[in-house]
Amino acid sequence: ITPDPAAGQAVKAADRAHVFHSWSAQALIDPLAVAGAEGSYFWDYEGKRYLDFSSQLVNTNIGHQHPKVVTAIQEQAAKLCTFAPAFAIDVRSEAARLIAERTPGDLNKIFFTNGGAEANENAIRMARLHTGRQKVLSTYRSYHGATANAIALTGDPRRWPNETGTSGVVHFWGPYPYRSNFHAEDEAQECERALAHLEQVVAFEGPQTVAAVILETVVGTAGILVPPPGYLAGVREICDRHGIVLILDEVMAGFGRTGEWFAADHWGVVPDLLTFAKGVNSGYVPLGGVAISEKIAATFAERPFPGGLTYSGHPLACASAVATINAMAAEDIVGNARRIGEDVLGPGLRELAERHPSVGEVRGLGVFWAVELVRNRGTREPLVPYNAAGAANAPMAELAAACKQRGLWPFTNMNRLHVVPPCNVTEAEAKEGLAILDQALSAADAHTV
Ligand code: PLP
């Protein structure tokens, strides 16, 4: 890494001149200029290196610049960059086969999109046309994307400025034992009461009006909430009883993140539709999609599917998916995620929780962990209020800054820091990150009462 601060300033100035950023007040942001990245690390023009414990937006499951995937993209670019979806293209078919072979049950057909939001848009479209019903149920603690239906499905505050009032979405509460909406005293009670709540929402909405229930198999950005045993099977049963399509959103949880190819594999639950993006090719080229059950595919056997995208099944994206999935299999990257979770991150985070009074709970699996921060462990008052901004969010901003200062790039949301390194993070890297986190957490401890 050769420092070149002048180049960094030029890159930043060029960004500020013309790039309009996501989710931001444009005048108030100060993006870091990035000079390069490899594996679990990236670096800036000052020569400072960061351990990427965010996997960017929890998408670089194979880390940065995996050589096999970079080569596959280069080779595909030389061969055939782009081709319309209506044609049969070798890498597209191969990507679909590799994905369909790994998705649970009879999810055997793949509709490709450019990302996660479009995957959910199309899954909802399929569910509505398949059932002839309109409503879709999703949880408050969720994020499903930023296009019209996907943001309406989303439970987190990013939905608020986007609501049109015509979405047909009804929100309900999923299980969250640490902050139970059901006054549950243990996981089993939480599971039972969360299912009774969903059953009641379905009854009061009118089962014959509900097309789909969509859930993140393990809730991602909204808290890394691992469902209690029996919950997903219970939701599957409610859906079956009422002819409701079950959609599992595995955009963040899929492709190794939880230590299985798909999070649904932990509980043996098969949805009717499964949406994916991010880890399918680590985001090297934009790609997402919907894995479709035989039953729903049959709905569109004789009747046209009224949806499509110019870049559906884009050859460069599909070539990078083929190379990613093959590399993940050859290098046992999914197994690595499971082992790192069981042997390093789980025990390491639980140990941090014992020593830092600001840590209310740690939870997760694989390389998908949340550290939930509180002002007081007894009352569980969050370290910052829900959706805090500016001064009210200072304790979390200070924690993030303390991580960055020590060379750790964190993922923070609300009162949580998520530990979400690449699935091929090494044991030494995971321990390095935990050691930095140990130091940085003093910044949060200072706000406990
Ligand atoms: N669904 C989940 C669970 C996600 O985490 C995300 C993105 O963070 C999305 C959907 C939206 O994906 P995209 O940003 O690719 O549209």
From TrEMBL:
Gene3D superfamilies assigned to the protein according to its UniProt record, in alphabetical order:
Aspartate Aminotransferase, domain 1, Type I PLP-dependent aspartate aminotransferase-like (Major domain)
For molecular function, the Gene Ontology terms on record are: transaminase activity
- UniProtKB keywords: Aminotransferase, Pyridoxal phosphate, Transferase
The protein's matches in Pfam families, at most eight in alphabetical order, are given as: Aminotran_3
Q: Does the keyword Transferase apply?
A: yes
Query: Which family does the record claim for this protein?
Result: Belongs to the class-III pyridoxal-phosphate-dependent aminotransferase family.
Q: What is this protein called?
A: Aspartate aminotransferase family protein
Task: Give the species this sequence originates from.
Answer: Streptacidiphilus monticola
